Hints:
Blueprint: H1 6-15, E1 24-25, H2 36-53, E2 55-57, H3 61-70, E3 73-75, E4 78-80, H4 83-90, E5 96-99, E6 108-111, E7 114-117, E8 125-128, E9 132-135, H5 138-150, H6 169-183, E10 189-190, H7 195-209, H8 211-216, E11 221-226, E12 231-232, H9 234-245, E13 249-257, H10 266-287, E14 293-302, E15 309-310, H11 314-330, E16 334-336, H12 348-364, E17 368-369, E18 375-376, E19 381-383, H13 384-401, H14 408-411, H15 413-418, H16 429-434, H17 450-455, H18 461-475, H19 483-499
Parallel strand pairs: 2-12, 7-17, 8-19, 10-11, 11-13, 13-14, 14-16
Antiparallel strand pairs: 1-7, 2-4, 3-4, 5-6, 8-9, 14-15, 18-19
Helix pairs in contact: 2-10, 4-10, 5-6, 6-7, 6-19, 7-9, 7-19, 9-10, 10-11, 11-12, 13-18
Amino acid sequence: MARRSRSERSNTANLASCTPSPFIARKLPFFDPLDEEQITKLEAQVDWILENVGIAFRDDPEAIALWTKSGAEVDGDIVRAPADWIRALCAKAPSEFTQIARNPDRSVKIGGKNQVFAPIYGAPFVRDLKGGRRYGDMDSFTKLVKLTQMLPALHHTGLVIVEPCDVPVSKRHLDMVYTHMRFTDKPHLGAITEMSRAQDSVDMAEILHGKEVMDTNCVIMGNVNTNSPLLVDKVVTQAIRVYCGRGQGIIVVPFILSGAMGPVSTAASVTQAMAEAMICCAYAQLVKEGAPFILGNFLSSMSLKSGAPTFGMPEPVLSNYAIGQMARRVGLPLRCGGSLTASKIEDAQAAYESADSMHSTILAGANYVLHAAGWMEGGLCTGFEKLVMDADRLGSYQKLLGGLEVDDNSLARDAYEEVDAGGHFLGSSHTMRNYKTAFYEPALSDSENVESWEEKGSTDMRTRAYERWNTLLNQYEPPPIDEATDEALQAFIAKRKEELPDAWY
């Protein structure tokens, strides 16, 4: 029998040490590859779109009325406005804010040099090694929420980790929001697909956190996409009014496939995304000055042969860098990137596409990263194994972003006093003091010799990931919640479900 390996020992420890996970306060500088001339040209293009092309605000007369009252040029549903005015309105949104979590130790700071990781959002399908690919259901959704609570590298639980397709569309938002509130104590998002669902989310947040806390803090956010190209529909504007009107946060993300919803040009698509997001930020500030706003960008290239989106390619990588520089100049927190792949399983394609996509996300300085873990199949599928594999990598990014420590302990002068020339540092006092935290040790990678690997069954990464998420679920314990608050939430849900007809659209 081979001795118990170092990786086996460390993996067991990792499974049991799921400590509260705050946001990342990065120490590494941002990667800003564009020079001043390039940035100036891009910003001029943004201004040209805002002033000359315009953005349509469709199917929401209330939004049009507010733009008209505020002095914008409104032609039908097309809104044009001086770029300086739009930028001045954007400057009223906070460049950094805190989203309060149910557990104060898990509250996150968004903006500035802070980075927050959240899981995949919106996939209708789910996959795991033994169960295969299938429609998402409430059981899978709940398991994924619990896993997100257990994974320290995920700071935020998002919302629609997978669509629970066994619950009517008209009611599933209630179950999803409650599941996050009950089974995690990390911050999360609320529903946005219809105005009343957004309102339900905000009302539930007020029950959970209390009116006084909510009056002065961001406790919930909505994440919504524009209808690129150049269209903001009522889903966006109504979500802004519900969330921002209550002083809560909103993330607005133009979803652009270059060549389809934007020109077949990364530079043009980036400027279009900036214009669409900035005018939504301006609208949010007209609704309520100072409301938290995150500028989003989800830009991907596509196969011009098939029309399928592609991920981890040079063009979206460059878009992350460009949007990072531009968002910081506007002074708005940024959402972009993620561990994105078009692959159907956790294979080499998934690994390199996700790595390239996420690495550029990190370097670009994205403050809030949705889709940081679990994304497969171009966003159509959530992978259980992919979730824990990505989270393992996120832990390494967190260590990387901490930068190089240079202090008395890291310089280790006392170790040199103990170790003679030609000796080793394994038993030195410095090593003993620091061995638990000196290096990042992934929970899933196998770095042992081939004999140890064979002794443990010659497992691949997918198999180890399957075992890990099942072990994590077995170890899961729900965070405590005030009994009266929980009862109030359940009563609200029961009342709303009685009022709402079952609808599957």
